[in-house]
Write a sequence for this structure.
């Protein structure tokens, strides 16, 4: 029962943090707490948080990773001299040792995270997941198409798993249209980027060539860039279909779209277009064309507009409705053919439109599932369009019991509202917009000792450089005094940490930095009188901003 209560209080540990040792009873005067990322990346420095108290103060703790007794990282030592100390050590899995370990065994990718306290014979051990994913590789070419004997110029970007520039050894290969490798090179990406070039042989067959790149010991994860090689032919024009949104709603009466036709060198096409419509069901290789819906018209100066009247579709003849298509996951098909009046050349373009039942999606996952009696109930909702983009400036209605509030979504589609009312039993939160309603049941928090932690702050989108002001509230402060500890997590990493003298109302602030973009979670906790960890967490949005400023300019020569 006690373990279940602790797991409820420590749900935050699932947010990219793994709890190693929870706590030893305060009656023994001992307290030992370590947290670490739930996933360790090979070759990357991962932060491990260490916090100790009581009889563990001024004792050296050694933290390291091992596999069946074999050391997989350096041993890092640290110690806490006061109760408010929170230390961070960095552990990195040795790539060579990890490769040797994988050759010895095909077991699942786990290692033991070990903590040893000087003078304590018993080690503290838990398993952590290991990822071989070193990072990402992106390849660019200066053209999408080449002729034989031309030179291909390419550029390769290497990033780590946090999307930061990564310096490493890259194996690059070039394959011709027949699939034969015609070039292979080993290069080092300094500062996460390098460039290269190679000539296309004069005897090359037409077809699709490709450049591949992977890290020297990671052949399973290959980046690919394809380009075409063909003998000189007259350039053809391209057709594109534009629309305000690239999906259909069940209550839509029509679908408006534009057609553009242009050569790569900028000449605009004059001619005619022909459109056909249908639907594509899951498992089909080609769309089912609906007869009688064809549209034709003129393309003038490379442009045309068209409208599909959805009400003109004979659903009885098709023996199904638009709602049936939506329920089955089918997509509406749009096919456009454009004919150049000058030379008779015909080019086509296709568009597949998913079908959604509502204009918006409402996400209540950031609203707490539990409330603390006597404290405000904060409702956080995020409204998005069906394609996942934030719905900005949308009116939203929020209601709890007999209380209601109206808000307008911010630039991230978010709305925030706080309600003060006395509730002792579960209740429902209703959030609605444009006829769509989402609900969530909120349960009262339960604690056998009556110990809680409630973190509040001003809900908004913060900028890098701003300060986040926090208030930590507890119904009763522990009789042993102590501290409230907090840590900031972003993208699975511990960004910063701190501690504050514990009281029934404690305030503090955190400076917003670039490595907290685009959001972070702040976790606060304290040690209760009986040794439990009492915790709470909040989600904070940060306005997206590049950490490095780049200026592009031209020079006259």
């Amino acid at each position: 029962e006690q373990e279940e209560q602790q797991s409820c209080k420590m749900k935050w540990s699932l947010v990219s943090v793994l709890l190693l040792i929870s706590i030893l009873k305060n009656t023994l005067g001992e307290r030992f707490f370590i947290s670490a990322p739930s996933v360790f990346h090979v070759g990357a420095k991962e932060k491990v948080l260490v916090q100790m108290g009581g009889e563990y103060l001024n004792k050296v703790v050694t933290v390291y990773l091992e596999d069946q007794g074999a050391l997989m990282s350096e041993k890092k030592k640290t110690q806490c001299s006061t109760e408010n100390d929170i230390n961070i050590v960095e552990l990195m899995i040795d790539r060579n040792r990890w490769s040797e370990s994988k050759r010895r065994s095909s077991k699942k990718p786990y290692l033991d995270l070990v903590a040893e306290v000087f003078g304590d014979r018993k080690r503290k051990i838990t398993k952590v997941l290991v990822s071989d994913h070193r990072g990402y590789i992106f390849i660019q070419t200066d053209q999408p198409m080449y002729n034989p004997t031309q030179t291909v110029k390419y550029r390769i970007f290497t990033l780590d798993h946090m999307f930061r520039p990564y310096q490493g050894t890259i194996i690059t290969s070039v394959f011709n249209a027949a699939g034969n490798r015609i070039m292979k090179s080993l290069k080092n990406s300094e500062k996460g980027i390098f460039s290269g070039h190679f000539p296309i042989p004069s005897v090359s067959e037409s077809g699709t060539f490709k450049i591949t790149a992977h890290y020297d010991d990671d052949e399973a994860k290959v980046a690919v860039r394809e380009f075409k090689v063909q003998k000189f032919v007259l350039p053809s024009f391209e057709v594109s279909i534009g629309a305000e949104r690239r999906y259909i709603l069940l209550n839509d009466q029509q679908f408006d779209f534009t057609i553009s036709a242009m050569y790569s060198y900028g000449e605009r096409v004059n001619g005619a277009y022909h459109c056909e419509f249908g639907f594509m069901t899951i498992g089909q290789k080609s769309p089912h064309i609906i007869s009688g819906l064809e549209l034709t018209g003129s393309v003038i100066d490379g442009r045309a507009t068209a409208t599909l009247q959805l009400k003109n579709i004979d659903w009885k003849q098709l023996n199904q409705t638009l709602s049936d298509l939506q329920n089955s996951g089918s997509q509406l098909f749009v096919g456009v053919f454009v004919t150049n009046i000058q030379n008779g050349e015909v080019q086509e373009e296709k568009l597949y439109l998913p079908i959604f039942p509502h204009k918006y999606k409402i996400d209540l996952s950031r609203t707490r599932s539990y409330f603390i009696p006597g404290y405000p109930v904060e409702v956080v909702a995020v409204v998005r369009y069906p394609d996942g983009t934030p719905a900005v400036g949308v009116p939203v209605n929020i209601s709890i019991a007999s209380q209601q509030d109206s808000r307008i979504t911010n630039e991230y589609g978010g709305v925030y509202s706080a309600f003060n009312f006395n509730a002792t039993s579960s209740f429902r939160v209703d959030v609605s917009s444009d006829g769509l309603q989402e609900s969530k049941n909120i349960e009262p928090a339960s604690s056998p000792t009556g110990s809680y932690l409630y973190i509040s702050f001003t809900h908004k989108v913060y900028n890098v450089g701003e300060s986040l002001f926090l208030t930590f509230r507890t119904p009763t402060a522990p009789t042993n005094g102590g501290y409230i500890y907090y840590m900031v997590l972003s993208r699975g990493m511990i960004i910063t940490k701190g501690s504050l003298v514990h009281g029934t109302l404690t305030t503090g602030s955190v400076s917003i930095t670039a490595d907290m973009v685009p959001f972070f979670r702040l976790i606060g906790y304290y040690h209760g009188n009986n040794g439990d960890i009492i915790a709470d967490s909040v989600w904070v949005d940060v306005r997206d901003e590049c950490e490095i400023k780049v200026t592009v300019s031209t020079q006259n020569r």
